[in-house]
Amino acid sequence: PYDGPSAADIARKRAEYLSPSLFHFYSKPLNIVEGKRQYLYDEHGRRYLDAFAGIATVCCGHCHPDVVDAITRQAKRLQHSTVLYLNHVIADFAEALASKLPGDLKVVFFTNSGTEANELAILMARLYTGSHDIISLRNSYHGNAAGTMGATAQKNWKFNVIQSGVHHAVNPDPYRGAFGSDAEKYVRDVQEIIEFGTTGQVAGFISEAIQGVGGIVEVSPGYLPLAYDKVRKAGGLCIADEVQAGFARVGSHFWGFETHGVVPDIVTMAKGIGNGIPLGAVVTTPEVAQVLTRRCYFNTFGGNPLCTAGGLAVLEVLEKERLQENAFVVGSYLKDRLRGLQEKHEIIGDVRGTGFMLGIELVTDRQLKTPAKDEICHAMEHMKDMGVLVGKGGFYGNVFRITPPLCFTKEDADFFVEVMDIALSKL
Ligand code: PMP
What is its EC number (predicted)? Predict the structure, then answer.
């Protein structure tokens, strides 16, 4: 049993000593003290089904014993910066990670977060091409340091500091976008940015395959191959941000970009790579990787033994427990069931996503697509009271984000749908 400080004590300390910009989802925030597989437990021992997994971070399940063992064993043996001496852990993990990527994508740079990974990817694209301009998609999230805040394209996440050299292309959003799913029309904007906003040469293009923070928006089928083509013709590199979609989450494939049939020049990752520990990575080709030999590139904690031992264990668990297959099978089942809910509840405007990266957009008017901002907060609160935690996001904050640990079962999916059904009925 938990005998730590009460929720009220923690809230008081948090208000006094932690960032005032922190936010929480619920009117009475939960005090979560333990996690196991797809469940979280509060201080009273109450169990919650976790359908958000720390923002798509926990892939193997909370505190997976194999991952915990790998980390603790390593912590007892050696924890040191990786750069000065040889150690096998970082090399073993880099090799294992490279084996999951197609083509010549085999050189790994480790970082500590998704922001750092994207900063590095953008830097490499600029160095490699000698150009500065980056194209990203509106509604995307790529991080919150100077360069990545520029690439992030939602006012909610931007501060008024210099974010130079990023152009934001019209989002190929099948639900809200002006051109529906018409990839060719959307990609004209990429071409126009290149022609009218740059010298005609760009450093690169960065995109998620499914926008996570943006509200589980799957970029229109056919868009990425066309966009990659335009960007490459303008001398740019294509960066796939797999921070949320990567690591088996989309089910049908290991990486989100694979669902679009493209091979990027640089892939960035974080979140799921470490099942909750701070770890990120950039993977690119030997040719692109060469650019960092022009100066010293150094990252004290990037690829440290503890995190890379954990990362290697994550890959082994994904394989051993066939979690990608589970994401595909249970994710498809859950999506079907959510489509059923859509028939019953007028407020569900759209059900979308792939595998265990699913979104439900709530609207008060299906024709006008008016965001149901308050309704979603009430529904989330009800769901929490019934023992289910779900995320939300999207530009208007009206999209449920369902990104559970990949060990989520069919029974969990049924329970989730039942609880959501009751919550939406109560609105
Ligand atoms: N890219 C994507 C797609 C993300 O969702 C996030 C985090 N929400 C990031 C990058 C930044 O990752 P981090 O918070 O680890 O810096």
Answer: 2.6.1.44
